[in-house]
Design a protein that fits this description.
Layout (H helix, E strand, L loop, with lengths): L8 E2 L7 H6 L13 E6 L2 H8 L4 H12 L5 E3 H4 L12 H7 L4 E4 L8 E4 L1 H15 L1 H17 L4 E3 H11 L5 H4 L8 E7 L6 E7 L10 H10 L13 E2 L8 H11 L18 H16 L5 E3 H11 L4 H8 L4 E4 L6 E4 L3 E2 L2 E2 L4 H13 L5 E3 L2 E3 L26 H4 L8 E5 L3 E6 L3
Antiparallel strand pairs: 1-9, 2-18, 3-5, 4-5, 6-8, 7-8, 10-12, 11-12, 13-14, 15-16, 17-18
GO molecular function: RNA binding
InterPro entries: PORR_domain, PORR_fam
Protein name: Protein ROOT PRIMORDIUM DEFECTIVE 1
């Protein structure tokens, strides 16, 4: 491996040539010029750590929310056992409660009643602080705008609730976001019935009442406007930040192609560009813009790959999201950790830490601190000891969590699912090579 090799990074040029983008409209770029290249997938330990750090976090928080939703803030253990498949738990609920004694406490209300589960005082304190964030006007307004922008990516301004539910954790929405949040914003949203275009069945959809022009500005456009000090005009060739990890080499002709591709006009993800030929370079840049904006709307700048593809299918992108992930590993990274594949926006991370951390992410790191905290606890008069599996730094609430390596079996083999007829994946212990043929 090339551990001593200097990491290659590609950044936008200092200035943008306005004349180029104004005289070459994006509708003319209907050809594909990427003809002969070898692109390899290289494992990124830092981004893998960022993903693996949150192992079981979503499931634990779902159980936590289920428990505190009860009037007594506790539930019988027997009522939680059937929820294993619903919350996608890696093991039985009873074992989950035993594994995380700093979060869950088991007790028997009376000799005639079964075992119950409640939160520990430390976990309940975090829950109240998390709830305070969800109730704060600043966070509520931010969450509403991000959800509205997600709907605006759909062009029709509507998405099925089952798709939004896939993203609600990554969007930072409360578990009961419909009653807790949306009901207070009738000027933004409405829920109605619609026919699912994929299966023809009726489904509930969340619809944006009206198009919000002030929100139809992508993160790329905001950034360019901030650094250039001028309004971003339609057709400017904005460059995506590309960061290639150690061990990643691109052929010179590929690097030249990337520069040419970056110089293509930037089409806003909030603009409908399905009129472009789906296999053209310009269409691919627009696809990357949509995927980039989607990940930027998420508080952790990452989500499961299956969520991305589900949304892409509904929006009509087909396998174009899949090709974008393979073609542009300097923009997106796919991690095989925690029993799934996770798409990560590279530029949002410095090593394994978020560059800009949302307040909810700070709370989640504090939950992780409790999850990793093994301690003695008593259950029915028996003292159980749990081996410490991770070492957590005192500043865990700042996202600095250190852990032992826990390599997943066959993680490289899972990456083969990215391949399609155009991409033949050949894996070894360190690298997956993707061959791209003429298109």
């Amino acid at each position: 491996m090339c551990s001593n090799r200097k990491k290659k990074q590609y950044f936008p040029p200092a200035t943008v040539t306005m004349a180029l983008c104004t005289r070459v409209p994006h509708r003319l770029h209907l050809v594909r010029t990427f003809v002969d290249a070898k692109i390899k997938w290289v494992r990124d330990p830092d981004l893998d750590n960022a993903v693996e750090r949150e192992k079981n976090l979503k499931q634990i928080l779902s159980l936590k929310n289920q428990i505190v939703s009860s009037p007594s803030s506790s539930l019988p253990l027997s009522s939680l056992s059937p929820l294993k498949p619903h919350f996608n738990l890696p093991t039985s609920t009873s074992k989950v409660f035993q594994k995380y004694p700093a979060i869950f406490s088991q007790f028997q209300p009376s000799p005639s009643l079964p075992l119950h589960v409640k939160l520990t005082p430390q976990a309940m304190t975090l829950h109240k602080e998390e709830l305070a964030i969800h109730k704060s006007p600043a966070h509520r307004n931010d969450a509403v705008k991000r959800l509205a922008k997600l709907l605006m990516l759909a062009k029709s301004g509507r998405l099925p609730l089952h798709i939004i539910d896939k993203f609600k954790f990554d969007l930072g929405l409360p578990s009961d976001y419909i009653t807790f949040l949306l009901s207070d914003y009738p000027e933004y949203f409405q829920i109605c019935e619609s026919i699912n275009t994929l299966d023809g069945k009726e489904t509930l959809v969340l619809e944006l009442i009206s198009w919000r022009k002030e929100l139809a500005v992508s993160e790329m456009e905001k950034r360019a406007s901030f650094y250039n000090g001028r309004e971003v005009k339609k057709g400017m060739p904005l460059w995506f930040s590309m960061k290639l990890p150690n061990g990643f080499d691109l052929e010179k002709k590929v690097m030249n192609w990337v520069d040419t591709w970056q110089d293509l006009p930037y089409i806003s993800p909030y603009e409908n560009a399905f009129h472009l030929g789906p296999n053209s370079d310009q269409a691919e840049k627009w696809t990357v813009a949509v995927l980039h904006e989607l990940l930027w709307l998420l508080v952790s700048r990452k989500t499961e790959r299956v969520n991305v593809f589900c949304l892409g299918d509904y929006l009509g992108f087909g396998n174009r999201f899949k090709k974008a992930l393979v073609h542009f590993p300097g923009i997106f990274y796919v991690s095989n950790k925690i029993r799934t594949q996770t798409v990560v926006l590279r530029e949002a991370y410095r090593k394994d830490f978020l560059v800009e951390k949302h307040p909810l992410m700070g709370m989640r790191f504090r939950y992780i601190h409790l999850m990793n905290k093994a301690e003695k606890f008593r259950n029915s008069g028996v003292v159980l000891r749990f081996r410490r599996r991770r070492e957590v730094m005192p500043s865990a609430d700042k996202g600095q969590v250190m852990k032992e390596d826990d390599k997943s079996t066959g993680e490289n083999n899972n990456f083969n699912e990215l391949s399609d007829s155009e991409f033949e994946d050949v894996s070894n212990d360190e690298t997956s090579r993707t061959q791209i043929i003429d298109t």
